[in-house]
Protein 1
Amino acid sequence: MADTDLSVASHASTALKHHFDDSEQQLESSTLGMWVFLLTEIMFFGGMFGAYTVYRNLYPAAFASTSHYMNVTLGATNTAVLIFSSLTMALAVRSAQLGQKRALLSFLTFTLILGLVFLSIKYVEYHEKWVDHHIPGPGFHYAEPQYFHQAQILFFLYFAMTGLHALHMIVGAGLLITLIAMAARNRFSAGWYTPVEMIGLYWHFVDIVWIFLFPLLYLIGRTMR
Amino acid sequence: MTHQVVPVRTYVAVFAALIALTIATVLISGIDLGEYNFIIALTIAVTKGSLVVWFFMHVNQSSSLTRLFVGAGFFWMLILLMFVLSDYLSRGWLPGPRWW
Amino acid sequence: MFPAAASTAAPQVDALYIYLVVLSVVMTTLIFIAIGFFAYKYRRRSPEDPMPRAIHGSLPMEVTWSVIPFLFMLVMFAWGTKLYFENYTPPRNTLDIYVVGKQWMWKVQYPDGQREINELHVPTGRPVKLTLASEDVIHSFYIPAFRLKHDVVPGSYQTFWFQATEPGRYHLFCAEYCGTNHSRMIGWVDVMDPVSYQNWLAGGAAGVSMSQLGEKLFEKYGCITCHVTNRSGPPLDNVFGHPVQLADGRTVLADEPFLRESILNPNAKVVKGYKANVMPVYQGQIDEEGLLQLIVYIKSLSQTHPQARP
Amino acid sequence: MSTTLPRPETTERPNYLNVDYSWKSWLFTTDHKRIALLYLFSITAFFLVGAVFAGLMRLNLLFPDGLFEHDTYNKFFTMHGVIMVFFFLVPSIPATLGNFLLPIMIGARDLAFPRINLLSWYIYIAGGLFAVLAILKGGVDTGWTFYAPFSTTYSNTHVILAAIGVFVSGFSSILTGLNFIVTVHKMRAPGMTWSRLPLFVWAHYATSLIQVLGTPVVAITIVLLMLERILHAGIFDPNLGGDPVLFQHLFWFYSHPAVYIMILPGMGVVSEIIACYSRKGIFGYGFVAFSSVAIAVLGFMVWGHHLFVAGQSMYASMVFSFISFLVAVPSAIKVFNWTATMYKGSITFDTPMLYALGFIGLFTIGGLTGLFLATMAIDVHLTDTYFVIAHFHYVMVGGMVLAFLGGVHFWFPKMTGRLYPEMWARLAAAIIFVGFNLTFFPQFILGYLGMPRRYATYAQEFQVLHVLSTAGASILGVGYLLPLIYLSWAWRKGERSSQNPWQAKGLEWEQSPTPPPTFNFDVPPVVTERPYNYSEEVEVGGY
């Protein structure tokens, strides 16, 4: 380990699973495992991005048309909320590194609240789409009939991509609640805070997905007509 | 632990940059620059994503193995996008000259 | 071992196939002989045999057995690609026939108005171009005797061309699984010498030609208003077979797929000098056969289209 | 762990099998070896289900007019494909032999994430139950490829159930891959450098990369397919503006690399067997190891060769064709190196070696016929015919299943502590080899003659070859039943095995007791020599 000056808490050894030699090997394995998992997540969204790219390329005009129905203000607000939550998550990991329980708890709670704010705003947006009959399927309506089918596909992709993203947010919120409960019970120390770090990685990844979704779904095509 | 403690101001600076880039991308998207809208929006998104990966996800402190896997993720997604697009973009091409 | 060969493509594909078979047999034999020889020569004769000494590898050998097969494969690639481009790029001056696949039959229309189901009559000695459309799922138009096949993808036109050489009656199969009666979506290709073909054409109940039917549709759907009467749409004379300048600066060839897309989804490619969102979208309004008739009508408006050129 | 109490009444030394006999100790085990056995029993069950469907298909094809209703036949081949591909071939070697051996071979006490390993088995079973439910409710008729728009709009069978099964089981594959990657990177014993890894481990590492990178894409594609089937929003439906070819692109992005998921572990097994029974290190170790990774990477850039006649751009097809030839090079390298390994060896012909030699032969044929399909002009004629069926059965059954059987025999003493009856095993190997070739070789000819695949009925002239093929299939069926019987027998009554019955090299034989204890080693293993170090002396003039 590079910096052995950090204190290794007593129960760091109790958290060591039987099949690992030492906690360093265990941490490295967890970190690598998490990154490999994020790799699969990239490819998971990658399939959607592939479909999106193809249809944007096939139907640029319909695409420009649908982007007028995206609420850029809400989208941008949500981007800011999510970036802010990434900051608080990073600070939560930092607090855990320093063994500051109270700071850890408050940053985790803050991150959770921001995540819930994001989901609430997302709900408002979905509700708008519902009111406008922009949900793909039998009830779909579109103001410009020449783009009916193409717009439906693009809204389908919008819901598939943001829905999958929202699902990841919900899972992330559940994980944060677990973390908060664990932190409240003094399970973490400067010597062992692997779950905080792992879920932090997950949270940042979900943030990155949104960083790409926002321009692709809301911004590109606003000026095309 | 393997990671050094990063000062708060680094995180805040990254956060400020991310917010600034978000504002920039929204503002630029309102101006008609033709195909450049797309290019600029994606460039900004890649920059923002890299900032998060590099600082928030501590890849700047990670082993080269982690970096390899991060790189592999984006490389494979590019394979998927490029090869799928190679079909769609070249479908309308006229049959080439008979070079044989 | 070989099915009947009845098109100009067939002997060429067979030749390439023989090249591959010979190479494969040589390769397989070499490996089998090596394995058999080593297995015999170096068999363990008694449990007390000494451990053989190690051989860790050899870079020259690795390079040899990577590069030499790869050179043979390059020939396969080049030969196969050349043949594929030839077999998939129709020449000019073709006899055009239109095929619609639906669960589970092939419907064939001739420009003069003959129609057939699960039968295709073609003359020898003349390139024939089929325009393939599907009304439902993906089918695949496959004539083993011609060594040719093309998927029939709904929502698009695929072209299939061949030049038959041997008169006879050959299998026509659907090769892409399409549901319950996939294996009954079969038919016959009747290849006839040009004289018999003319007789067959004359003998059949020709009825109304495709372009006449298309002209009626042209009036029925109101195309005539903008494209002929008030000229708010691009004129359609001498369009087919010619390059078209688009509003976004690209140039495309006005072929069947282009006409199809321009009818069903007019905003996809807008002709230079005209506005998008003027023409209504006909997606879902015209069936595949009607669409083909319209396209044949538009083709008939091009007297000087390349098909008329010798 | 369930328990580590020794059982005093047994004379055997404690091992992973006899530490506890309760059903809980199996269903809640985190021991990679027990999970491997759970997988082994489950995939065998699915293999039998898939094989029954194959038998019914061959029965139908005895007659040009068929024997069953068309719909029934269509369901047979679909369920055969779905079960065999997603529930047998993909997990077969990695989840059983890989799970059992990979940690032992690198000197680890377990995989990096034992609980995730158990979870992957439960996910696999959950996916399998959906597939079984789909069968019980009447089956699916889309073909294992689920091509849109037939699957999304026109089929009125239980597509969604089967799709959920495939989707769910995909995650078990991802988790296995993730576990292997981390284990290989982080859990190697002291001295086990990358250049000392057994080729089995290299092959599994490459396989895991594909599982982790490819499977998510097919998962999301299946999700889109299900949503489309429910909502009819048009994403793959051309009548609603969608593009059905997009589905094929996304599907084959996984499903072509997936055939490498199936064959690479088999290559790993064969490398081990050839080395052991030739008493020599694998010729060109570095090339064989690296070719696995090369196949894994290049394998992701060739999927378009499934779309040569599907309306794909000719230029894209050209690129895909070229890379398909490129990926043949590392496969050829492996075959040549295995052959060269036998040169100046000391070869015996025990059952695993027979399977390995059979593998090389059949994989050579399977691989070379792959070149036919990569050659565009030939592929136009051959795609969607029996030639394709024969080609991939030569690779999957002739290659993968033979390697799997070879591996099961080779490591049977390791897993059970007992020996199998050698004569029966050799007989079964011979029967399988003959039956296999009789089943599938005629299909190459059928294919070039133009017999399309997935046909319930066919033209009269194809009957002779079909009858031959069915005759072969019945021999093959007998061949598969034999190992099932004598291995079950040997498990309980077979002669006890010594720690290293084949005098093989490798940590699993040399340093781990047979059968292994729960944590694999009595003494923490240390690696001090190159892999397959049968002899320190180097052949004069050798390299």
Note: The helical segments of chain B are 8-29, 35-56, 64-90.
Protein 2
Amino acid sequence: MMSKRNIVGIFFFLVIALLFVIAALTTHEFGHPEKSVIPDMDDHIIDNTQTETGANNAVTSVVFDYRGFDTLGEATVLFTAVAGVILLFRRLKK
Amino acid sequence: MIYNIPYFAVAALILIGLYAVVFKRNLIKIVIGITLIESGVNLFLITLGFRENSVAPIHTAGTTEKTLMSLPVPQALTLTSIVIGVAVLALMLSLVIHIYRHYGTLDVRKIKEVDE
Amino acid sequence: MSEMSKIVKTISNIAFPLVLIFGLYVIAHGHLTPGGGFQGGAVVASACAMILVAYGSVWTMKKIKEKHLSLFESVGAIGFIGLAFLGLLFGLVFFKNFLLGEGLIFSEIGQGLSNINTAGVLPLMNFAVGLKVIAGLFAIILVMAYATNKLKGGEN
Amino acid sequence: MDFLATLVNHSPALIIAVPLLGAFLTPLIGKINGKVRNVFVILVVACTSFLIALLAYNVFTNGALSADAVTNNIQTYVFGAKDIGTPAVRIAFEVDAMNAFMALIAAILPLAAVVYSWAFMKDETGQDKYYTLILLMTAGMLGMMLTGDMFNFFVFLEITSIATAALIAFRIDQKYSVQAAFKYIVISSIGALFVLFAVALFYGQYNALNMAVIGDSIKYTMLDKIALVLLIASLALKTGIAPMHMWLPEAYGRAPSSVTVVIIGTTLGSLYAMFRMIFTVYGKHIWDLGKTMALQLPQLLGILLVALAILTIILGVFMALKQSDLKKMIGFAAVAEIGYMLLAVGSAIATISLNESGVTVMTSAGQMALKGGIFHVLNDALDVGLLFLVAGAVYFAAKETSLNKLGGLARNMKYTTVFFLIGLFAVSGLPPLNGFASKLMIYESTYAINPILSIAAILCSILLLATFVKVFHSVFLGPKIPKFSNVKEVPKSMLIGMAIIAVIIIFIGLFPNLIVENIVKPASEALMNYGLYLGGI
């Protein structure tokens, strides 16, 4: 029972599957990110997190200092979701 | 190729999720599919940042001593992406609840029948 | 969700403060150990969710309304963006870490695991985000649980 | 003047931060009083628009307000430090003429929407959350348009899509709006996750997240090709380009009209991101590597985009003919309009080729097509936005949007009728309004590239005009229907909201050259000179 829509769907699905499999094959060797590029940005963060941000935890220094603006966006996403959920479950009549 | 097995896990997660979104008829299964895709992408970010024989990127013994640490940026990105995923999931599930209230079913075909 | 048996209630009463303390610890030590505002906030929110499961959504809704949680969340968000604005005011760049090295609180540079008085605005931001995540996640869970309870005809 | 210069220096950050702070404060201020909250929201949006105007003026004049912030018509802003450092660790905004042009669009639409909402949303519950979400959408849209960081773009994409989905389902008692919202969030979260995967591919290869840095170090590896396919597919999904267009008319049609106006802005934000990815991040592929490759990337990409565009236009126009609901019909017209932009830009990309001296150039027809396409982005946002506001006014007054049941509204709603006429003429490209100016550029340039494209575009435009004339006749003219005999003209705030857009439409229609020379031309040049953007960091 293959409808026309299903065949088109399977075709697109296979194309996308091929993309992801090729991506998995050609990404650098697992555990060795330096095989594709020298990780400048991350090494800079690891070396300077204590002097530049004062934090021992490099991940926290990235989350709140180096990429703090992303975290503002992330907090906003959660705020948006709460506002959205409360909006969806509001009472309709005053 | 044997070194790339984690990436194949990523591809498998994403493709299973995509399969659920495209071919499944139940709205909850579609939602599960999206969370699967999201887990796959998160796993990809984390695996990109792993270095062999490294420790977590936290300085425990002052500034002088140096050890090999895994990359911190992908971990931060994954944290952001997980929170975003939670937000999307919450909103999708509330929409599913409303669809159930209106139609009394979660099956896409039955919803289409009701509409016509 | 209707309320559960006495055993579940008692256990969750015992576990609640422990989970709460652990969550607050994770938030407060975000700049020193693994964790931070989001992770600790999620832990505390799960403690609240445990209470919700044990006592039922109707009981919880009587104790705390989602609009109060929404207010708390706004306060957390304003605290976070306010710290960023203070960076603009004192450090001349938005999101500047203006407390670091100024001799006020959290001004020292991290030297290892022990010193909590480090990292500038990062701990403050952790607290703001923690407050926001606790209130936000709990609000989402509470609202959805209450709504599905009504959907089933309010069997409570 | 010192204060003004400081304000302009910090404006890229403030443009995002002000609506965000406003959104966080709205629930608190809503506790005081509904009117205070409405005034507050309008003030916040007006402030944002003012800041955008300052930033855009500074960028277009290359530093008339604050010379030290701008070099080569690019203003950068780094978060958390004075400069970005040698490895670009921090998030940076990089505003060139194209970003500023898009931000100008985003300055107009939310302002009209919030003014319009005052009366439009008067009787609804949940207004606090409604205004919060509108402000969040505005902030997210502006973030998408201004950011120079790939991951930051993903975050703002998600903010906009979550806020949009919640607002599409605003009328939760109507099952179709809930359904449209669910479709929208499924589509947009898949799109956003593909964007994130592409970002991860870039990160794994170049260890960078900044668009300029990635664009600078990009090679032509297999992973880059996969990332390009994923980026174009996902952003096309979010823009509503055929064959992934089905969510768009539903989302536009089922959302409250004041929300739809802002959704148009977010859709165009995705379109902008697609252009930015193709022209800037993959700029080296298109301009430099193209001459050495056996398979010519620009031609391939251009032909693909043109094919999608033609499909989008035809599908949009013919589906619009069939609709019996006013708002869904305008939604399909919006799909067709997006096709026109893509047609122009796609054919512009297709004309990139080697000239005699071995340099890759875009032909003059291609440059004109690019200008026309970018100009049409502005015009489409205004025209379709005005039409949706009019449709919302019709719904507000008559509580009905079905074309078969409406009729004879022109007698009671004179101003609304005038606004609909303006929108109708503008969207179907009749002189002297703005749609004509940009569509003429598209027709002329595509005729020089390939006459068939131009003819197809003109024919579809005529069909669109016919559809809208039919709609105008059935909604506003015709015999008096007793059910609608007591319909009144909509309140003043809604008229002001429509008038804001209508005045700008007429202004652009009267002085198209002013806009093209001062705003559109720099924007298209910013897209073509990718080197300037890459050198901005």
Note: The two ends of chain C are 7 Å apart (CA to CA).
